[in-house]
Amino acid sequence: MYKNFLKIITFLSILVSPFLLTSAYAxxxxxxxxxxxxxxxxxxxxHELGKQMVKKEFGNDVEISIVENVxxxxxxxxxxxxxxxxxxxxxxxxxxxxxxxxLKVAKEFPNVKFEHMTGxxxxxxxxxxxxxxxxxRYVQGVVAGLMTKTxxxxxxxxxxxxxxxxxxxxxxxGLRSVNKKATISVIWANTWYDPVKEADxxxxxxxxxxxxxxxxxxxxxMLQIAEKNGALGFGQSTDMGAFAPKAQLFASVNNWGPYYxxxxxxxxDGKWNTGDGPxxxxxxxxxxxxxxxxxxxxxxxxxxxxxxxxQAAHDGIxxxxxxxxxxxxxxxxxxxxxxxxxxxxxxxxxxxNYYLEGVTxxxxx
Amino acid sequence: xxxxxxxxxxxxxxxxxxxxxxxxxxxSGVLNLGVEGMMLCGAVAALGSVLIxxxxxxxxxxxxxxxxxxxxxxxxxxxxxxxxxxATGLGLTIFATALTGLIGEPxxxxxxxxxxxxxxxxxxxxxxxxxxLFSNDxxxxxxxxxxxxxxxxxxxxxxxxxxxxxxxxxxSAHSIGYSVKLxxxxxxxxxxxxxxxxxxxxxxALTPHWSEGMTAGKGWIALALVVFASWMPIxxxxxxxxxxxxxxxxxxxxARGWDVPSQFLNxxxxxxxxxxxxxISLKLRHNNYAPACLGKHFLGNK
Lengths: 365, 302
Prior knowledge:
In chain A, helix 2 (about 40-60) packs across helix 9 and helix 5 (about 135-145) runs antiparallel to helix 10 (about 305-320). Chain A has two domains: about 1-130 and about 255-290, Rossmann fold, CATH 3.40.50; about 135-250 and about 295-350, 3-Layer(aba) Sandwich (Rossmann fold), CATH 3.40.50. Chain A is built from eleven helices and 14 strands. Chain A is about 40% helix and about 20% strand. Chain A has helices spanning about 1-15, 40-60, 75-85, 100-110, 135-145, 160-180, 195-205, 220-230, 255-270, 305-320, 345-350; strands at about 30-35, 60-65, 90-95, 115, 125-130, 150-155, 185-190, 210-215, 230-235, 250-255, 285, 295, 330, 335-340. Chain A is globular and about 75 Å long. In chain B, helix 1 (about 1-25) runs antiparallel to helix 11 and helix 11 packs antiparallel against helix 12. Chain B is mostly helical. Classes of the chains: A alpha/beta, B mainly alpha.
């Protein structure tokens, strides 16, 4: 009798589920678009770990579809549209370059929710999620400033967009908080992932005298070149210590899981939203050290007093006592951004198209 | 400065090796546009074999074999079945790009052992040039050796002259009894081997990774270099160094804060390729460097 009852309930719920898409009892279909295959390090692997947390949290209540190796551009539009057609209710597009494709498909599927990572454009059914990577980069700057002997830091950036530039500036703030003589020189790789180019850029930085390397690209190539040449550096997205046990000082580790879980829960409860509206950052998911969306791997290859100072910077940012972009702030060509006593707000970070003091060169136009 | 010069030399090795192979292939009258594809095959085979066997020298071997295998596909179609060489070569590259993506998938994110540096005693102690020239891995020495080997081979050996004869006038070569098809098969395989080794050099020495399409146009640059060098191995070395230099220069310019857009610098190697090809084609009408039968089918049966 009880068994039959269960069968009927299941049958009914299957019948009804298409009409109650947001019902807590229905399986939620979740789609992910990955830039590369996850492998075992880096940007996409961090998303893969987040997806595994979703699986663990919701178990059979979610059905997850993933498309890997999706190039940014027209191909992405096709893939995202296909995921929407297959009935996924929420689709996470996990790279900056999916911004326009996501917006385009979102227009065609007003009932599907889209979560675009690291972008800045939102509509009624497109929300954005991001991590305050720059917080980790400030701590990197502190360590770099204390560890460098040549006072030259080599930085490899992906593209000159505000996301990357605010990271460079945060690094510079950390660097100058302990060492006013050191400078950062930046090489743009114009790609997120290309081990050959990243390695070339790292080699050039070392040949030009840099002894500490930092990266805002995804492969461990830079750290491996550092390891080979006796330089030091920081890992990206996930702990890359295994690739360069003697060169990695620490890595900024991305933790997307809690954000995914939060948004899927919102969807299940019918409370999914994009935040305060398209002009505000405050209402969106932009978590850092304080929400554990960003964590730091173990400090290694540095003396304990350096590790202590790094830990103090970490704790200060986490508790909110240490303001990374507190005035007075000056660009590297001497223009004042804000005076003493003021702090840059989130909107100003996304408008950064200048280098702060400590960085050499100009932002490419 | 020393480190920069070493980096430039190493960056130019893959294009140099692939270019030398293509030079021999073209001398025999075959235009194989599949260099980029063959390099990718070499790269993925080298990385995979090093991951399995743990020895980087095995990687060179497997890279060479992969290059030969994929070039025989090309030979079979163009020399035996007499399909269009340009179309087949392009097809080979497109096919190999996808194939290596598939084969390479399990290797993404894995790190392979690199080729060790072999210091030549005494010579590596020479100030300035010693470290640059005589403290490198085996493929650097091999590539330099190959330049002189091919140069000498074409000038002074019977085999070299037969290859040139087949490439310049296949009907005459055939009429005096040489097997045009066999010579072209062998030359194309040699080209495949060199391209495979050139591709292998990227994961074995430059960055110990696999990523899809990691040759990033080096095969096309090698192709252009052969024309740029007017089919002369020593000029090919100069060309390869110039291209390697430009590739590195774009990063140096940024690190030193020169006020040039990075996108423009990224474009330079390819711009230089196009310029070289355009200049050469202007001059080509008056020279006789190009093998006269380049890209032409041999309709005989041997």
